């Protein structure tokens, strides 16, 4: 097979979801990791709901997960790179959605937008504003929003705002 043919075949495999899983070590070693570059790694991940937050290695290896799997991993990685991330849970009538707000970019990373050309949602860090933007994307209202930390599998609430 020619080089051009090999490259075309590889391109087909990648677009068909046969891309190699990225590892936690590779993400940590990326010297150019920014919030926008980070979310691009997850563009072809599948949504798969889970009651518990998956360990980063399991999330990455399976190439599937949900919003809190992504947001908690994103917060940890971005913190290691010198950013100031905040985990935010938005409670809506039939949904709870978690995003990772990054003060330096004045935007949040939303796992639901991982395939968008511009995946970061710009807004100030006000919890009510973040909640309104998230709820708008679900075409619903929000009831409360909480900032929390997630360390060693334990979620600790920092503050909550009710609507």
Question: Which descriptors apply to this entry?
Answer:
163 residues; alpha+beta; 6-stranded antiparallel β-sheet; two-stranded parallel ribbon; 6 helices; globular; disordered N terminus
What do these coordinates show?
There is one protein chain. By secondary structure, the chain is an alpha+beta fold. The protein contains six helices and eight strands, in the order αααβαβαββββαββ. The protein has helices at 3-15, 24-29, 35-40, 56-62, 67-80, 127-137; strands spanning 46-47, 64-65, 85-91, 96-102, 107-109, 120-122, 144-151, 154-162. The strands form two sheets. A six-stranded antiparallel sheet has the order 6-5-4-3-7-8, sandwiched between helices. Helix 4 (56-62) links the parallel strand 1 and strand 2 (64-65). The termini are far apart.
SSE pattern: HHHEHEHEEEEHEE
- Number of separate strands: 8
- Note the beta-strand portion: 25-35%
Distance between the termini: 61 Å
Shape: globular
Low-confidence stretches: 1-18
Number of discrete helical segments? 6
* Main sheet attributes: strand count, strand direction, barrel closure: 6 strands, antiparallel
- Our Rg estimate from Cα atoms comes to 17 Å
**Which structural class best describes the helix and strand composition?**
alpha+beta
Which whole number gives the mean pLDDT?
89
**Sheet with most strands: strand arrangement:** 6-5-4-3-7-8
Indicate the percent of residues in helices.
Answer: 25-40%
């Amino acid at each position: 097979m020619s080089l051009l043919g090999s490259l075309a075949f590889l391109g087909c495999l990648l677009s068909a979801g046969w891309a190699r899983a990225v590892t936690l070590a590779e993400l940590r070693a990326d010297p150019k990791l920014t919030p926008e570059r980070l979310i691009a790694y997850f563009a072809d991940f599948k949504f798969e709901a889970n009651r518990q937050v998956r360990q980063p290695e399991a999330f990455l290896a399976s190439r599937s997960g949900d919003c809190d799997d992504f947001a908690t991993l994103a917060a940890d990685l971005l913190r290691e790179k010198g950013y100031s991330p905040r985990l935010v849970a938005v409670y809506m009538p039939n949904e709870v959605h978690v995003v990772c707000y990054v003060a330096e970019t004045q935007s949040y990373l939303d796992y639901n937008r991982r395939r968008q050309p511009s995946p970061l949602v710009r807004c100030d860090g006000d919890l009510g504003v973040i909640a309104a933007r998230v709820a708008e994307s679900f075409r619903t209202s929000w009831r409360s929003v909480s900032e929390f930390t997630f360390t060693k599998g334990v979620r600790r609430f920092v503050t909550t705002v009710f609507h």
